[in-house]
Write a structure and sequence with these properties.
alpha/beta, globular, seven-stranded parallel beta sheet, binds NADP nicotinamide-adenine-dinucleotide phosphate, 270 residues, three-stranded mixed beta sheet, 18% strand
Length: 270
Amino acid sequence: MKIVVIGGSGLIGSKLVKRLREHGHEAVAASPDSGVNTLTGEGLAAALTGASVVVDVSNSPSFEDAAVLKFFETSTRNLLTNGAAAGVGHHVALSVVGTDRLLESGYFRAKIVQEKLIKESSIPYSIVHATQFFEFVKSIAAAATEGDTVRLPPVFIQPMAADDVASAVARIAVGKPVNGTVEVAGPERFRLDELIRRGLRAGKDPREVVADPEARYFGAKLGELTLVPGDDARLGETRFDDWLRQPTTTTVSRATSGTPGVGSVATAKP
Ligand SMILES: NC(=O)c1ccc[n+]([C@@H]2O[C@H](COP(=O)([O-])OP(=O)(O)OC[C@H]3O[C@@H](n4cnc5c(N)ncnc54)[C@H](OP(=O)(O)O)[C@@H]3O)[C@@H](O)[C@H]2O)c1
């Protein structure tokens, strides 16, 4: 099958393209660097010609409220219009567990708009809701840092390795469209402050992590279960401590800023 991966150069996208190719699919990595820009529409029609499946694992380069909304709204419209014209039979998009419970944040309001456009389109679809990537720990810490203290509410979180996210998305992309949402998550639950404390310690980061029930998560107030999936979630295998020990894991070091959806240690931005 020809499968176009929008955001194919990103953290999840690059792993996904590799997996799909290993399984014999013609996976096309599409991003502005390869001449495909979903925001402007450049290169989109040509990239989608002959595609059976489109997987959107792109992310907005800017996380300012208006910019992120424009990115997901315009890109998704362009993708769906061009996808329908090309006869794409399955549109898959990666979003976040709890998106509908995080609407105090502009980022998640934009993801909801993306999901709504997909649900209303004529193309059969699967929306994958993943929990926070292990690779995102440093961005969570950065966003919650004041001086040398990281303040986070002690709510539950069930994070997962980016490798497991890519495997789950690959399986869903080659399957039948579910015309609904599938949740994927990690094998263990943590308290948010405890997870970040463990991640920072592993990277020998001296910041103190304080459990503060009033602290916000990227501007949003969290309930005990806001970030965790329901009972039907498909679980990845990789445990956090094992991931921290992997030689390929970059230690969770201090970043200057953090934004939801920017999970890559390798490509941390802005
Ligand atoms: N971080 C988390 O914990 C988490 C949890 C659940 C779900 N998610 C979701 O996972 C998705 C992927 O995240 P990620 O961390 O893998 O992203 P990422 O590493 O930041 O990669 C983003 C990708 O989007 C591409 N892109 C940017 N602008 C584009 C445009 N105009 N047209 C086409 N492609 C464009 C980038 O291309 P360039 O390389 O050329 O810039 C890059 O390939 C996001 O939608 C996010 O909401 C994240």
